[in-house]
Amino acid sequence: MSASEQPGSSAGAPRHGHVPGDHLRDRLGADAAADPADPIEAAAVAVEAGRRRGAEAGRTGSGDVEPTLKEMLASDAFRQDVLSQIGGWRGMAESAVPVLVFIVANMLTGLRPAIWCSVGAALAIAAWRLVRKQSPRQALNGLFGIAIAAFLAARTGRAEAFYLPGILLGLVYAVVFAGSTLVRWPLVGVAWGFLTGAGTGWRRDRRLLRLFTWLTVLWAVVWAARIGVQAGMYLAGASATALGVARLALGYPPLIALLAVTIWVVRRQHLDRPSS
After folding, report:
1. d(CA 229, CA 36)
2. Could you tell me if 106 and 241 are in contact, meaning their C-beta atoms sit under 8 angstroms apart?
């Protein structure tokens, strides 16, 4: 019996409150053919449906949820959802704009105009997303980081200081990733459990715990290498232009490669694993 045929249900009223996109999630959960035009919305639909099916299986004791995870990991929607967590392709491009503006403006006009131009670019991106009724979270996070960087550069009078907050934040990320493996809560596993709705059950599987630990170590090493290069350049007195180029080159490209490797390894682990 479909959701629309159940007693007391109404085709025009969502069953879970007036939450945007819930009707799509309900249709997908009922195995209807839902294909939203927005790939990020499609990802959210697929992952939410997987969470609900996994939760239902856990409540009823109806069996292993591994087949659901396999379907999810094999889907394009899962990859899109992972990508959406870092803002999507547009969010990644937008986050690079204020830094690029600072580099060019500093070369052409000097430090003060470059500071105002970079902050203005970050404000314009946030305003544009609000006008288009898109989530401003990524842009506002970027604006906060740019504001701190601009403050340091203005306070010290050195354009190189613009890149210091990013270096320090990257160091924190590297330490957190490494530390999570020491307490046996590898962050890659935590993120995987959240995205798939699997929770923390993976920690009871020694093979999965080992896999996520090594993947998290890989993330920590890459973060440390990225920040090590930039910190070394900063301490060696590299120019602001060189630091900016390093910031862009060592920013999203390694992160995208890490995501691709992580998704491939996790998918292979689960797709090659026989269902119980």
Report:
1. 42
2. yes
SS3 call for 97:
helix
DSSP secondary structure, 145-205, as one string: HHHHHHHHHHHHT-GGGGGHHHHHHHHHHHHHHHHHHHTT--HHHHHHHHHHT-TTGGGG-
Report d(CA 95, CA 140) in Å as an integer.
10
Q: Which helix (H) or strand (E) holds 1?
A: none
Q: Which amino acid is at 66?
A: E
Residue 252 pLDDT: 81
Please write down the long-range contacts of 237-244, taking CB distance under 8 Å and 24 or more positions apart: 238/160, 239/160, 240/103, 240/106, 240/158, 240/159, 240/160, 240/162, 240/163, 241/103, 241/106, 241/107, 243/160, 243/162, 243/163, 244/99, 244/100, 244/102, 244/103, 244/106, 244/162, 244/163
- Contact 98/141 with Cβ under 8 angstroms? no
Distances (CA, A) of 207 to 60, 83, 181, 203, 270: 26, 26, 14, 9, 11
Q: What is the pTM for the complete model shown?
A: 0.66
**For residue 219, what are the CA distances in angstroms to 30, 56, 138, 254, 258?**
37, 33, 21, 10, 7
Domain ranges of the chain: 15-84, 90-157, 160-276
Which pLDDT tens digit goes with each residue over 205-247?
Answer: 888 899 999 999 999 999 999 999 999 999 999 999 999 999 9
Name the CA radius of gyration of the chain, rounded: 22
pLDDT band at 141 (very low <50, low <70, confident <90, very high): confident
